[in-house]
Write a structure and sequence with these properties.
single chain; about 300 residues; mainly alpha; MetI-like fold; 2 domains; about 80% helix; flat
Length: about 300
């Protein structure tokens, strides 16, 4: 099992390095930060001085090696906008992002899981069709369309909630509900599919034929075996919380990490963008690693295979 964990952690580290490397190259090839920050009318001397001060006058491979050398020493760079530590700039926005992503994740799980299970158990009923209709709508409608629709209804038409900004719980309601509806729809859809596949397996019919109570068959056999694919999609959603908040935070002017990423990319604030991508990459690979480890706890057969692979 130790070899399995180390292998997964090694892959996670490689994934983070690839993400940051691609972002490093693309950001530097997509525009000159000196021109973006100083403006197109800045004197050439000022532009050259800015490039030299931030090391942008050096070949890109030299910049790349210096960046990763600094990262391994714990230096993630400074913001080109105000000179502050890029990590500090990002970190002060993290609580605001968590304030909407964590409640949204709870809504995803608390609504999506029961809805998917009940839809599978009540297959082809009116309840199943209702859940799947809502799930398809939530699954296919883009987050910015969902957010704008909710804002139009509850902020503009009924004037019940603010349409944007932060500062109170009321400001967080629409962003949370937007991400909650979309996430719950995805989980419900995958949970229903996983449950239907499990309910059609021979061991379910065998357990029922032996006289086991239907509730016991569902709880002990069906749910346990349907947990693997459901955990996969939940792990993916946990890992992509920050990335998924980019659009929602922009729609509702919520000053979190997602909106900061949009602003930093537009301003070519390279260090801030790279810290955010590191944060997103770390979150995603950590969530996926946690899911991989939970697989072995939920299904001992997977743990046995991992032990054999490591020997």
């Amino acid at each position: 099992m130790l070899a399995y964990v180390l292998n997964r952690m090694g892959r996670a580290l490689v994934t983070i390095v690839i993400i940051v490397s691609l972002a490093f190259v693309i950001l530097r090839l997509s525009g000159d930060p000196a021109i973006t920050i100083l403006g197109p009318e800045a004197p050439p001397q000022a532009v050259e001085a800015f490039r030299k001060a931030w090391g942008l006058d050096q070949p890109i491979w030299v910049q790349y090696l210096k960046y990763f050398s600094a990262v391994f020493q714990g230096d993630l760079g400074n913001s080109m906008r105000d000179g502050r530590s890029a990590l500090a700039v990002v970190w002060e926005r993290v609580p605001l992002t968590l304030a909407i992503t964590v409640p949204a994740l709870l809504i995803n799980i608390l609504i999506g899981l029961p809805a998917g299970v009940l839809a599978a158990l009540l297959r082809n009923t009116a309840f199943d069709r209702l859940i799947m209709t809502v799930s398809v709508i939530g699954f296919t409608v883009p987050s910015f369309v969902m957010g704008l629709t909710l804002a139009l209804v509850f902020a503009v038409s009924f004037r019940l909630l603010p349409s944007g900004g932060s500062g109170t719980i009321a400001h967080a309601v629409l962003p949370v509900v937007t991400m909650g509806i979309i996430g719950a729809a995805v989980i419900a859809r995958f949970t229903r599919s996983a449950m239907l596949e499990v309910l059609g397996q021979p061991y379910i019919r065998t357990a029922s034929a032996k006289g086991a109570a239907w509730s016991r068959v569902i709880m002990r056999h069906a749910l346990a075996n349907a947990a693997i694919p459901t955990m996969t999609i939940i792990g993916f959603m946990v890992g992509s919380l920050v990335a998924g908040a980019v659009v929602v935070e922009s729609v509702f002017s919520w000053p979190g990490v997602g909106r900061l990423l949009v602003t930093a990319v537009a301003n070519r604030d390279l260090a801030v963008v790279q810290v955010i991508l590191l944060f997103i990459g770390f979150t995603m690979v950590t969530a996926n690693l946690a899911v991989d480890l939970l697989y072995g706890w939920v299904d001992p057969r997977l743990r046995t295979k991992a032990d054999r692979a490591g020997t």
